[in-house]
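Journal club prep — side note

Before the paper discussion, L.F. wants everyone to see what a predicted structure for a comparable chain looks like in token form. Sequence:
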Amino acid sequence: MIVVDIGYRKIILPKEQAMMLVECLEASETYEEKYWSDSERRERGMDGSYTYHVYTNDNGYKMHIVSDELYAMAKLAGKPVKD
């Protein structure tokens, strides 16, 4: 099993599916909505509260391998209980 960090979430996939995801992520770009405060908009002569940007994804993604035994144990543990 492969764990892939995507943003603030970690997902776990079988190796074959993880490699398909990696191929998709390789071709991905970053999309960002940037909020501008009232004072920033006045200063720049802008009308809208947001600008929209697409650019090269230069951050990358983290991945690591999880053994079958650890996966099975974690699967049995299920979702953590919140206090």
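L.F.'s comment for the group: The mean pLDDT is 90. Keep this in mind when we get to the figures.
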